[in-house]
Amino acid sequence: MRLVSLRLLLSLFLMAALPTAFADTVTWATWNTPTVLSPIAGIETGTIGSVNVTYVGELQFVNVSNAGNFNYFQPTSTYVGGVVGNASTNGGMIGIDGLAGVTDTFTFSTPVSGLVLSEVSLGQAGIGTNYTFNDGFSIVACGPNVVYGGSCITQSGDTMIGHEGDGTIVFSGGPITSLSFTTANPEYWNGFTIGLLPQQTSPTPEPGTITLLGTGLLGLVGVARRRFLA
Hints:
The protein is α+β, with helices and mostly antiparallel strands. The protein has 2 domains: 2-17 and 204-229; 27-196, no CATH class. The protein has helices at 2-17, 76-79, 207-229, and strands at residues 27-28, 30-31, 38-48, 51-59, 61-63, 93-96, 103-112, 115-122, 129-133, 137-142, 151-152, 154-156, 159-162, 165-171, 176-184, 190-196. Strands 1, 5, 6, 8, 10, 11, 14 and 16 form an 8-stranded mixed beta sheet that branches. An 8-stranded antiparallel beta sheet has the order 2-3-4-7-15-9-13-12, with no helix packed on it. Helix 1 packs antiparallel against helix 3 (207-229). The two termini are 14 Å apart. The model is unreliable at 8-20 and 200-229 (pLDDT under 50). InterPro entries: Ice-binding_C (IPR013424). This is Ice-binding protein C-terminal domain-containing protein. Residues 203-226 form the Ice-binding protein C-terminal domain. Pfam families: PEP-CTERM (PF07589). Residues 1-23 form the signal peptide.
């Protein structure tokens, strides 16, 4: 009985030592009045908490972040999922057509991890507009938009594809100081905003500590087993 109890204790310890994924609160970008509106060399600035962000590239329009602008990132079910626990609600959005031959780049004032992007109305039913990023990502939520309907964005490698697609993606790289993407198959417009997941505050046990504790528990199991056999 004691042997079984020690094995159970060891199993519970190892399970507790593994990282657990859970939804967290995203800090979404606050976008300012654009510095330059241009189809090939626009400039937009904003903040994500204490991080300054600059966007350079195609810039057809900007919805400035304020309570009076309509929030396109609805319904919640289309934009919240996985590690992302909340959608953008401040009305801020960058709008582009997806022109080919233009590289669009976000630059951050300090290295960031846990970068999130939410997309509105990417492509049309007959036009598969896409963004190809210089970083890997995963889709955590997708579905129809409150205004245009549509469906899920899809993924092929580091390319996000939409036929009137909507959803949220989380990038796997970091810490990074910039993120770039190119587009193909332009349409009338599509929009996006970005945000950051918080850094985890709960300490993670050092690998050496886990090994030491695990070895100690295994030793106890061995002692109990010898006593049981004796």
